[in-house]
Structure formats: structure tokens, C-alpha cells
Amino acid sequence: MVFGFPILSTLVWLPIVGGALILFLGRDRDSFAKWTALGVSILTFLASLTLWTAFDSNTSAMQFVEKTEWISQFNIYYYLGVDGLSMPLILLTTFTQILVIASAWEVIKERVEQYMGAFMIMQGLMIGVFAALDSILFYVFWEALLIPMFIVIGKWGGQDRVYATLKFFLYTFFGSVFMLVAFIYMYFQSGSFSILDFHAMPIAMTAQIFIFLAFLIAFAVKVPMFPVHTWLPDAHVQAPTAGSVVLAAIMLKMGGYGFVRFSLPITPDASMTLDWLVIALSLIAIFYIGLVAMVQSDMKKLVAYSSISHMGFVTIGMFLVYDIIQTTGSSQGAMIGMEGAMIQMISHGFISGAMFLMIGVLYDRMHTREISAYGGVVNVMPWFGFFAVLFSMSNSGLPGTSGFVGEFMVILAAFKANVWYGLVAATTLIIGAAYTLWMVKRVYFGPVANEQVGKLKDLSKREFAIMATLAFAVVLLGVYPAPLIEVMHSSVANLLVQATTSKL
Amino acid sequence: MILKFLLTIILLSPLFGAVAAGLFGRQIGRKGAHTITIFGVAVSTVLSAYVFWMFVVNGHSEFNTSLYTWLVSDGMKFEIGYMIDNLSATMMLVVTFVSLMVHVYTIGYMDHDEDYDHHNPYYQRFFSYISLFTFAMLSLVMANNFLQLFFGWEAVGLVSYLLIGFYMKRESAIQANLKAFLVNRVGDFGFLIGIAIVVMYFNTLDYREFFAGLEAHTETTISFFPGVEWSVITAMCLFLFVGAMGKSAQMPLHVWLPESMEGPTPISALIHAATMVTAGIFMVARLSPAFELSEVALSAVMIIGATTAFMMGALGIVQNDIKRVVAYSTLSQLGYMVAALGASAYAAGMFHVLTHAFFKALLFLAAGSVIIAMHHIQDIRQMGGMKKHMPITYWTMLIGSLSLIGFPGFAGFFSKDSILMALEASNAYGADYAYILLVLGVFITAFYSFRMFFLVFHGEESEYVKSHTISESPKVVTIPLILLAIPAVIMGAPMIASVWSGDYFGTAIQVLPEHDVLGALYHHHYHGIVDMVIHSLTTLPVMLATAGVVLAWFFYLKRPDIPARIKSSCPRGFAMLNNAYGFDRFNEVVFQNGARKLGGYFWRSIDVKIIDKGIVTNSFESVMNMASALRLSQTGLLYHYAFVMIFGLLAMLIWVLW
Fold this sequence. Notes:
The complex is a heterodimer of chains A (about 500) and B (about 650). Chain A has about 500 residues and is mostly helical. Chain A has helices at about 5-25, 30-55, 85-105, 110-130, 135-145, 145-155, 160-190, 195-200, 205-220, 230-240, 240-265, 270-295, 300-320, 320-330, 335-365, 375-380, 380-395, 400-415, 420-425, 430-445, 450-455, 460-480, 480-500; strands at about 65-70, 75-80. Chain A is built from 23 helices and two strands. Chain A has a two-stranded antiparallel ribbon.
């Protein structure tokens, strides 16, 4: 609460109510639907800024807490609050939302009110996921999110959207069921569904292992980690641009967030025992998926695989603490890995969002995502080319852009944990640059490949504004990441204490 | 405080010009773009000259300050800041001065560049890039920590990428720039691991703190393979040097530099000869306190450098593209510098960096002037007898070539002789090998340099020269040539004594007493400049250089039938040189195709076949069938149903809350 005002509830419900309004009143009134969506999104973003300004970065305690009884017979609360781990992700959500709405402006022509409504509701639910402190509330938001995304891909998606939506739905649903079981188990043990109570409760080793694995399945699917990643490329390819943006920029982060909110603090001993599993899968993501990205012929698939590869830095960064203690005898450096992982999530939100928006710009004009259909785009779209190269460089981890910060920190920490983690993780410098810049070469550079490319029009004002906003964010975070890291310090430090304190 | 402000202006004014010309190129037009960028770099140059005067001439002590904190994590500060001493002050002046010359020259070069359609503001873009490069290079040399060094390192790589691919309609250009970036990334991989070792053992990124911690880690070991312990300092230096190998194009990471000649000639001069490629040498010199502690690393550096110097020089002999000849000569000279570093003669290596910056920039710009005159033909076999058509280019190119081959008294003579004498005096492992290669390299250098020189300017006029009007380039081209020719002649003599004695770089370069070959030379063999020049006439290097020039004259002017006969009598050796020892082919087959094949294999057999078809689809197909049935019965209503579901959920939530 800020001065008694329920800011988190506002952030959750404002978009949802706005979305409902658009759905009910916006039929055949496209302009109303669009402007309401944009207005509410901007309002939500402005409201979310108060989280930043009023945030106390000296404490790891939950802030802006709201707690009301919801289902009393099961001790379930409507319980919201944020700390330094979740607050930046909420800001990322509200920021991205404006771009998402703007990106669809002239592109979506059928059923505009349903499209806008779906995205508005999705936003509220995503904020809910990051703000929920009651596990059942969290679960409700988490699962409810599948529905609007399912609809967005299924209704406005590409040719094979049915296959993609089902794959997406089943994968994630399959994952989260295990999580629900874990919640219920812990409820029976502690009598509470509160996440903070889960953090505090002692759990025996065997139970911890099972809970850890249940969480791992749920979050690994979401991140996604190898080998449960194959839904993502299909979902991206079929989703409309804005759907891909939300998926890559925010929904994947929910998996990473799950590890820091649930796995590490609730099952520290199991995390210590099984950290090798997460680390191995992360390194596979970085190396193997990077090579897979290189051979893709569809731009969206390439960027989707690139996303998986980059998310490998998030998951490995989070689980380095145990090896660092084992190798060096102190946890010095673990914080660099963890904060690097958190920064990587925010940065990947910007970059993957930008990459998908760029593909969207091309797709809107050419109706194909095949790399071979392009060539020499920059000759006819110089501004677009400028942004494309900037974001691609950021995707390859160029210092001075946001893509560098997290990867750099995680590689430093990974090397400390085990020299080979560092060596494998650092191959992204070569592989990441190879698949990104090879695509740049084939799509943007070279002579104009064909007549259609020759007729391409450069960015419209709307598209330019979207790209410029993201470019600003990418450069700002790359040049001056200190403020963002500062709000995380206390919470990350506390998380590391939780993760290294036995609960047996 | 004032100094810090000055340094910030030096750093940012090229960036300002780059942004203005790059983002507002259309609005400010061609004239606006070159005016604003030249102004920005000129400001940097003047202030750098002032800083140079303060530090190198007046002996200001090291200035180390932090500009802002990039971030703090786990108590470790990642900062942006400056460390200015004689090393960085000298580099700043060289970088800004050469950059300024190249900016001015570009007005003339790009104006004649008819390779491009004039609707695109490519002219402004070019100025934006070279100013951006100046900013990046300055931030690299001014850094007081590894983070900023790495930032500058990668940023110059970015600009190099953009400029090599400047003619982006040419397939060869965009192939070359991708290759350059990726090969450099292989180097940066090593560099980053080196930085990770620094962070792991020294827990800092700051140079000074790092140097202070070195003593404590001389005995520490690191293990990459179970049971095999390596000295931390050796491992760290070797990894950092891999970075230097990428940027300074040492074998086997040299493959990108010849192809970088796809870029416009002014940037070949600025980036791929004078400044960026010397970043690796600068880095090792900057980190001399660390390299001094590892004789293994030093010997490795020396051997790699000498091998590069010799083998790449040999390739210069068979090149027919005027820019490629100069490019291979750059590779070879970089090898000399690196070899000097390995002999602990950091100052001699840096000295050669400085003289090379001027004479090589001069050679490239003069080659560019020839290319302008030849209407963008670069094949030296089509040239000949151009001396009388372009006298200024002729004389400046002659000066550059003489400096390059180490003609006694010229700048290049002093720096190259310093390197050779240092290697002769060095007792390090491999010094004999390196010395022999470098001395042979002197002969090769003279031979290929004057082969090109004679073929271009002397002999009979070729058909092309006869049938076209060949004229001297405009003033914006020739004035930079003259301005660069001056230091290429005179800058060696005033510096030699202080370079040898170690006074020139002062505390910036640290050498252990037992490694200090230059100091020993100074005390035992230095008897003044005149003596050095006279004495050199009786030494092997100068004799070999003379022999090289004479042989080039004999082969290419007197008896051109002989090289042709040699070529036909040993086709194998010639093919080997022509294929540049097969490095490109090897990389293509092993790394490029290998990575693609591996990726394709992973994707098709693991992702698609095992995961998707094997595991997912079997459990999935039944669901799909069911779904199709459902879809038939509820066409178009599915999403309505889903919305109802959400609102049902939400309504429930609200209802319970109330």
C-alpha cells in the first residue's frame, strides 16, 4: 500500500477491468477498443512507477502488502506484495504492455475488441503472478494466463496454430499440475498456503527433493529449459507478433521468477543436491540450443531458440551459489551470478520483445518469415536497419547494451563456481554472435533480393516510436545498470541466505 | 577536477559528432556531417595534445579517477573511469591525430567513391562510424579497469564490423565483416575468460588494485583438468593474450584482417592498420606487471608474434591487390610488435605501434590516393609509371615505405631496430628462433614493399594508365599524406633514448630487472642517435633491407621474366602462399560447416525426432484427434467459452472477497 492505497490491486485489476470493458462495449467499435486499451495501459504503467519511487531498497521484506481473507476454510488469502525480485518484473510487464498494444494498432483488423481485451486481461494476470504471495492465488493467476494466450494464438495465429496452441497449453498445464500438488502437500504440512510460510517451514530431505522436482518441471517448461523447450518455437512461429512479444518478454520470466520465489527458498537442501541438474540443462541451453538456432530458416524460430539459449543464463546464474561455496569456501561472487540472472531477465524482456517486433514489422509487409525471402532490407528501410543492427548486437551481448550486463555477470560467477561452466557459458560470445549476425547478413545486408523487398516502406511513425523506446531502454540499461541492481540487492542477499540455510 | 572534465570532453566529443551525423545525417547534409564530426575529433585532438604535453613532456604523475559506477554487486565495483599516464596519453594523441587525418582525407575519398547511389546518406553514415570508432578506441585506451577495456574492445569491433561491411551490397564485404566479427569474438572469448580469472582471484576489475594483488598470487594455481595445476598468472595472461591475438590479428586468428580490406580505404588506414589492431599490443603493455610474472606466457607471446611476422610477410610477396599488400605488411608488423612484448621490450613494441601508426596510415592513404587516381582499380599489375602523374603521392609513399623497411634515420628504423636488438639480447625461451625469423622478415618486408612500389610508380605505363587520365588527388587527400609523412620520418630519433632507458613510458610499463633488455641496451650500447644510424649500416638488418630493395628492383624493373619463371618452376610453393597456407579453407570446413552440421544434427535428430516426434507426439496425437472432433462441433465458439471461463474465475474471486 502507498499511503493506504492498494497499489498492487490497482495494477492487477485496472487492466482486467479495462479489458472487460473493451470486450463488452468494444464490439465493432475498433477505435474505442484501441484507445481504451492504450489509455489503460499507459495509466497502469504510470501507476506502476509509484512502485519504483516508493520502493524501499534497504529491506528484503515484502512491500505494498495487501492481505484479505479469500477462502477461509482452506486458509487461502488474497495476499499481494512485492520485493526487489518481483518489482522490476512488474515494471517490465507494464512497460512492455504499451508497446504490445501499439504494435497491433493497424495490424489487427478483425475482432479488435477481443484481441485488445485478451491482452489487457493477460497483463493484469501477469502482474498478479509476480505480486501474489499466496500460492493458490499465484496458481490461479498462473493458470488463468494460459487461456487468453491460448486464444490469442488460436484465433489470430498462423497456419498451424491449433497444433501450436495445444502443444503450448498441454506442456504448461502438464508442468503446473505438479506445482499444484506440491502446494497442497505443503499446505497439509503447514496449514497455510502463504508463500512466505512455505519459506519458513522445515521440510525433510525426501519431501524437498520431490517438491524441488515438481517445481522444476513447472518452471522448466515455462522458461523453457532443455528438453521441455520444443513448445516455444512452435508457439512463437504461430503466435501473432504481440503474442510472441508477451510470451518472450514476460511469460518466460515467470519460470525464472518461480525458481527464485519457490525453488531456492523453499527447498534449499534439495536445490543444493540437485543444482547440477539445473546447471547442466542451462549449459545445454546455451551451447546446444545456440547451435540449433544457427540452422533455422524461419526468423521467428531462430529468435525463439535464441531466447531459450539466453534464458540459460538466467537459470544457471540462479544456481551457482552452491558450487561457488564448494569451490572457493565462501559465497563471495554468488550474488553477482544471481543479480546477473535477474538483470538478464529484464534485458531479455527488452531484446526479445524488440526482436519479435522487428520480425513483425517485416511480416506485416511481406507475409513471410523465411530468411531466404529477404536480403538487402536495409537498402530500402534504413531506419529499420539501424534498429535491427542495434538490437541484434544487443542480442549478441555487445557491451554498452543491456544484453551484455547479465551475461557478463553470470559468466564471471559461473567461472568462479567451476571453470568449465564459465568456459561453456562464454561460448555464447561466439555462437550467439554467429546465429544473430548471420541472420542480419542474410536479411538486412546484401543487394536487394527481390522485387517485394525493393518495395518495402521504412518504419511508420508508430513503429519508429516503438523501436526508439526499446532502443532507449536497451542502451540505458547497458550504460547504467546500477539503479536496477540496487533495488534488488537486499532481496537477493536475503534469497542467498535462504538458499544456503538448511531446512532439514 | 579540471583534468577529469577535459578527459570527458576528449572522450565524448567524437561520440557527439557520431550521433549527430548518424541520426540526423539527412537533416544536416554532407557538409554538416563532415563539419560536425571533424570539429568533434579536432577538439579531442587538441585536448589530447595538451594532455600529452602535460604527461609526457611535463611529467605529470599518473592520473587515476572514476567517472561513474556502472554497477555494484557483491561488494565488487564495476566502474567507468580513466587511467592517464604516459602510455595512455601517447595513445590518445596518436588515435585522435590519425583519426583527424582520416576524417579530412575521407572528404576527398568518399566524394570520388562512385560505388554508391546518392540517395542514401552513406556519406554521413561513414563519418558517423569513424567518429564512433574514435570514441570507442579512446574509451579503450583511457580505461582504468577491465570492464571499460572490454567495452572499448568490443565497441571498436562493432565499428570495424560496420565499416568492413560498409559497401553492404557486395557479398564479399558482408561475408568479410561477419568473419571479422566472429574471429574477433573467438579472441574475446579468451579475453573474457581472462577477465573471469582476474575477478575470481583478485576480486576486482580495477587495474591498480589488480596490480597490487599480483604479488600475492605468484604461487597460486588453477586447475582446468583434474590433477593438472597451472599457475594462475600464466593461465590468466594466456587467456588475455588470446583476446590480443584476435584484435591484433596474430596467427591463427589473423584470418579476418586481409578480408577487412573490403572496407573503404580510409578505415583500412585508421582501424585496420594504425589504431584498432594495435589494441592487443596496448593491452599487453598495459598489463605488463602481470605478464612480467609469467615467463611461459611471455615466451608464447614472443613465438606467436615472430611466427606471424615471418609467415604473413611472406604472403605479401604474392599479393596483387595494392591494399592486400599493405594489409599483409600490417599483419607482419603486428607480429614484430607482439614479439617485442614477449621479450619484455614492451616499450619497443609500443614504440613500433606509434611509428607504425603514422607510416602505415600514410601507406594506406597513399594507396587510397592511387586507387582514386585509378578509378577504383586496385590491381597493381594494371598500374605502372604513375610517378609522374602523382608526385605528392609518390614521394609520401616512398617515405612511408622507407620508414616501413627501417631505412636508417626514419622513424620505423628506430622502432624496428629496437625490437630486433631487444630480441637479440633477450635470454627468454624461444628468443633465438624469434630473432632469426624477424631478421629474415626484414628482407621480406623490403622486398614486397618495393615490389609494390616499383610496380605502381615505376616501369612502363600500363595500358590503363596510358588510356586514362591519371591525376594527383585533391588537397584534402594530399595534405593528410604530407602531415603523416612528417612524423613517419622524424618521430623516431627524439624518442629512442627515452624508450630504451624506460623513461618514456615511466611507471606505465613495468619490467622486472632481469628481463629489462632495453635498459641493458641503453646502458651498454647507446651512444647517441648519430652513432646508432652509422653503426646500423654495418648490421645485418640494414644490409638485408637493402638487399630486399635491390632484389625487388632487379626482379620487377630489370628482369621481370625471372619472377615469372620462378612462379612456374615451383607451382606448389606459390599455391601455398596464394592460399595463405590454407587457414581459410580449414576454418571454412571445420568451424563454419562443422557448426552448421552439428546444429543441423542436433535440431533434426534430437529436437525434432526424439523430443517432438518420439516423446511428445505419441502422447499428443490422441489429444489432437480429440481436439479436432471438438473443433468440429464448436467452430468459432471456443474462445467465447474460454472468456466465460476466465470471467467465471474472476467473478468467483470477487464474490468471495466481498
